[in-house]
């Protein structure tokens, strides 16, 4: 990356911050490859806290100029107007993704809002903060399509989709994730939104070893599949996604919907479309959700792919 490109970074950050709504929002998305010299840099507004993330090591000139610019931002009228509290840089490329505080002190467990819903973040300790900001249109879609539905949320993480589904009037949501720690955070997110936990299940299991338990709570009118691209020892996208798709007809109610997601720049939407046609031909593609405009990418197929499918049960012979 190039220190000479940083004035453009600060110009975009200040412009986005000035118009930021009262909720979490990405301010700058260098990974969309639109700004040469800034490809491995992002900036997120966390309602009073600014997180800048470096995805690749940079030279001292770049880092020093970045830090100096962030300090200047903290001294601006705009920062005071937006009630800024802290600025920190996460070095995502390094072991443990260490975080360096530039201004103020981190509130490492803030409660933030998105589309009227509350979520607790976990900052400064993990690669991911607890919510994926590029999926906000996906969560909004789920909220709009969950009423009176039995919902299955696979690879639930901290249950963002589940929170959206309950807010949208779902009858039940079943969350499945092998990380019990993530599901515990999901339980907190539901409590923050005053949801009835009797309607929410948390299954801390390996999905591929738990189809019996998952099927027991079905059939489902809405299934969400949002796996990691790779999780050592448990999931490899191009090898394991098909194993999920072939289970869908046994899990879905007639007329049910699937939101299937892929978030790897190495895999296009054709991968998912072709795999669904092969392994679940009665689950038919409907449309792809737009990504939030702040996540614009010069290659739409390198960005998040969130695809909606409809299931029509085959007629009995």
From TrEMBL:
Domain S-adenosylmethionine-dependent methyltransferase residues, every copy: 25-309
GO BP terms, alphabetized: methylation
Keywords for the protein's UniProt record, in alphabetical order: Methyltransferase, rRNA processing, S-adenosyl-L-methionine, Transferase
UniProt-recorded Gene Ontology molecular function terms: methyltransferase activity
One of the Pfam families matching this protein, by short name: Methyltrans_SAM
Top EC class, one word: transferase
Parts forming coiled coils: none
EC number: 2.1.1.-
InterPro entries: SAM-dep_methyl-trfase, SAM-dependent_MTases_sf
CDD domains in UniProt: AdoMet_MTases
PANTHER family (alphabetical): RIBOSOMAL RNA LARGE SUBUNIT METHYLTRANSFERASE YWBD-RELATED (PTHR43042:SF3), SAM-DEPENDENT METHYLTRANSFERASE (PTHR43042)
Name the record gives this protein: Class I SAM-dependent methyltransferase
Species whose genome carries this gene: Vibrio zhugei
């Amino acid at each position: 990356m190039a220190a000479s490109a940083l004035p453009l970074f600060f110009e975009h950050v200040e412009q986005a911050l000035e118009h930021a709504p009262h909720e979490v929002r990405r301010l700058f998305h260098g990974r969309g490859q639109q700004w040469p010299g800034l490809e491995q840099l992002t900036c997120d507004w966390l309602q009073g806290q600014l997180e800048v993330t470096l995805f690749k090591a940079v030279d001292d000139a770049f880092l020093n100029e970045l830090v100096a610019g962030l300090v200047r931002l903290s001294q601006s009228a705009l920062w005071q107007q937006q009630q800024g509290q802290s600025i920190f840089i996460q070095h995502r490329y390094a072991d443990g993704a260490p975080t360096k505080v530039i201004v103020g002190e981190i509130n490492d467990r803030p409660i933030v809002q998105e589309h009227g819903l509350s979520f607790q973040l976990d900052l400064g300790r993990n690669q991911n903060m607890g919510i994926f900001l590029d999926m906000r249109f996906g969560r909004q879609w789920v909220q709009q399509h969950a009423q009176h539905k039995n919902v299955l949320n696979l690879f639930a993480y901290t249950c963002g989709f589940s929170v959206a589904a309950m807010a949208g009037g779902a009858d039940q949501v079943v969350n499945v994730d092998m990380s019990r720690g993530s599901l515990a955070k999901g339980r907190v997110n539901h409590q923050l939104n005053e949801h009835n936990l009797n309607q929410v299940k948390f299954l801390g299991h390996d999905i591929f070893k738990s189809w019996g338990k998952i099927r027991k709570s079905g059939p489902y009118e809405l299934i969400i599949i949002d796996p990691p691209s790779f999780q050592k020892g448990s999931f490899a996208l191009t090898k394991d996604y098909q194993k999920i798709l072939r289970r869908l007809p046994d899990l879905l109610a007639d007329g049910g919907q699937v939101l299937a997601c892929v978030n790897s720049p190495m895999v296009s939407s054709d991968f998912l479309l072709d795999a669904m046609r092969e392994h679940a031909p009665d689950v038919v593609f409907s449309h792809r959700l737009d990504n939030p405009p702040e996540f614009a990418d010069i290659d739409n197929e390198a960005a998040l792919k969130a695809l909606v499918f409809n299931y029509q049960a085959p007629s009995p012979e």
